[in-house]
Amino acid sequence: MQEKRTGTHTLCCMRRFLWPNMRKGLQSMSTIFESSDLFEASIRLEDAAASLAQIAETCKLDATDTGSLKWAGDLLRSVDWDFQKDSPRHINPDLAVQATSIRPFFYNVLIESRDQFIAAGISSEEDALDFFRNFYGLLNGEKAPSDISKSHLSLASKFLHEISRGLLLEVTGNYHAGFEHRTEFSTF
Which end of the chain has less Cβ packing within 10 Å, N or C? Predict the structure, then answer.
């Protein structure tokens, strides 16, 4: 008899105190899940950026780098709609969800980094497409580090770093403050 009373009491408390705020709680949980996805992507992209910076210095790809580069490559293939047209592949549904959240940061960094692309010799649309084909090819193990110039490897590393940074700023609620007064990569 005591179990029934406790169960009924719990149900009454839930109806009285929790139910009216349930919608708010669910919204908060979805925010937490989205933030955790952005945080994970930020950390993994920063790891890939560090690997690319190391590759730019040594022109060697370590076995430990391949996992982070492959994940970043799969994610960016999901993010970049232009690339999906050229190379249709199966897209991981989990990455597709993250890609939807990351896409605005990707294109924002792409727009903000125009001068750095020009400085690296990427001045036309065709040059940019070649850069991203080589970049994604390296991330996915289809290209060797020697196939890409050191300046392009460095640019790719900084590009990933800035996406990672933007995601981290978004998670902390400081995204607009972090990008408001910037005209170039923070690492240049």
Answer: N
